[in-house]
Every structure is written in C-alpha cells, then in structure tokens.
C-alpha cells in the first residue's frame, strides 16, 4: 500500500515531463517559423492598417459613395437570382435578370461587384455552402460572357443556408439565390484616383447604352453551369 503514492508521484512527474517537452517543441517550432518568415509577421496577423484604411475611406467619403451606389444599383435593377432545388443552373428568368445587371455594370467601369451565394436548409451545411459558391460562380461566369471584366467581379462569399429569407427547414426557392452588390471602386482607375466619386454615382444610366447584339446572347441551355 505504501508504494501507491510513490507510483502516483512517478506517473505525475512523467506526465509533467512529457507536457514540458511538448511545450518546448511547440515553442521551438514557433520560433523557427518566426525566424524563417519576414520581419513583423507576428505583429501583423493580416489586418494591420485596416483602421487607417477605414478612416481614410470615411474621411474621403468613399465609404458613403459605395453605399449610395449600392442603393442605386438595387433600385434600378433586380439584384437577386433564384435557382431550382440542388442546382446551380441559370434558368431563363435568371438570365433575363443578369442581362439587366450586365447592362448596368457595363456603364460603370470604375465599380467592383461581389456576388453572394445562398442555399435553403435541406442538406448539410458544408454541402450548402459549396452549392452557394457554385451559384455565385455561375452568375459571375454569365456576367463575364456579357462583356464584364472578371477582375471587377468576385464570387468569394457563400453564406450557404445561414441567411434564409424565409425561415423553414424545407425547400424554399426564395432562399436558393444569389445577390449581386456593389463592393467598391476599381483601384487605379483615373476617375477614382481623382476622387470624382460623385460623378460616378450620379452618372446617367441609359438602359440601351450597350446593344445586346454586340455581346454573347446564347440561350440559357448553352450557359448552364452543372451541379
């Protein structure tokens, strides 16, 4: 019976030694990574300078102009495209909406856009997030076919099933959607460099400025993006 406390102490000491060794290895690994990376990598996790950038954007009015342009885009064209169940294919209704979006976007070459993908709650969350991203990419691909530079379009965000319009566990077409939004201005564009944001915001939008006959107007079946 007297040996049990000794055994317990021995095991405790062994566990402490292993933990210390593990911590030592982790510390050494961290130090090695820090030594091999650029100076300041530990100080800057990736968002260093964001506060200064945001202050600059608010002081110059860029943030407000982006908001105003987003409101105008949403007021003048349909920003949402819906999809069939478990599909990233563009039907004729989606194509008609995207043609309107493309006409608007072509007349504002200084502006960048982001497409957000969504899904309904049928299926698991990981699959629905992937499906939302495929839907966003389908929209971007079609807008590119309509003469929009891919460098001005992003399909990097998918909310999957997390932001339903209609709260339900079942199938709901209104939740299976993409939303196109203004995300900012094109860096380096002469108009933006000169700070002429107001001229961009209040530029006249003429729906027929770019005739569709000059663009790719294939039928929906030819432009479908598979599952």
Task: Summarize the structure in words.
This is OmpA family protein. Residues 70-186 form the OmpA-like domain. With 227 residues, the protein is α+β, with helices and mostly antiparallel strands. It has a single domain (61-222), classed as 60s Ribosomal Protein L30, Chain: A. Helix content is 46%, strand content 12%. The chain has 7 helices and 4 strands, in the order αααβαβαββαα. It has helices at 3-36, 50-60, 62-76, 92-106, 125-145, 190-193, 197-201; strands spanning 80-82, 111-118, 153-160, 177-185. Strand 2, helix 5 and strand 3 form a beta-alpha-beta unit.
Q: How many helices does DSSP assign? A: 7
Please report the first level of CATH classification, the CATH class. Alpha Beta
Number of E-state strands: 4
The major sheet is characterized as: 4 strands, mixed
The pLDDT mean sits at 73
Helix content class: 40-55%
The CATH architecture assignment turns out to be 2-Layer Sandwich
How big a fraction of the residues is strand? 5-15%
What order do the strands of the largest sheet run in, or round the barrel if closed?
1-4-2-3
> What is the end-to-end distance?
68 Å
Count of distinct structural domains: 1
* Shape type: elongated
Residue stretches low in confidence (pLDDT < 50, at least 5 long) are 30-35, 38-60, 216-227
**SSE pattern, N- to C-terminal:** HHHEHEHEEHH
């Amino acid at each position: 019976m007297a040996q049990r406390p000794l055994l317990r102490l021995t095991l405790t000491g062994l566990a402490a030694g292993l933990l210390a060794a593990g911590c030592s290895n982790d510390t050494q690994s961290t130090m090695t990574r820090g030594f091999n990376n650029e100076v300041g990598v530990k100080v800057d996790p990736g968002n260093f300078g964001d506060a200064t950038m945001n202050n600059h954007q608010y002081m110059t009015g860029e943030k407000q102009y982006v908001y105003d342009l987003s409101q105008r885009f949403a007021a003048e064209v349909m920003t949402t495209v819906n999809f069939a169940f478990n599909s990233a294919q563009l039907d004729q209704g989606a194509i008609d909406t995207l043609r309107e979006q493309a006409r608007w976007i072509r007349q504002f070459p200084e502006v960048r856009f982001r497409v957000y993908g969504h899904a309904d709650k049928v299926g698991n969350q990981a699959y629905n997030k992937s499906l939302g991203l495929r839907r966003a990419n389908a929209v971007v691909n079609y807008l590119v076919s309509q003469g929009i530079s891919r460098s001005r379009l992003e399909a990097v965000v998918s909310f999957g099933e997390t932001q339903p319009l209609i709260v339900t566990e079942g199938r709901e077409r209104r939740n299976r959607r993409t939303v196109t939004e203004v995300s900012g201005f094109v860096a380096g564009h002469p108009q933006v460099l000169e700070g002429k944001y107001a001229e961009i915001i209040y530029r006249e939008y003429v729906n027929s400025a770019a005739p569709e006959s000059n663009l790719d107007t294939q039928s929906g079946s030819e432009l479908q993006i598979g599952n």
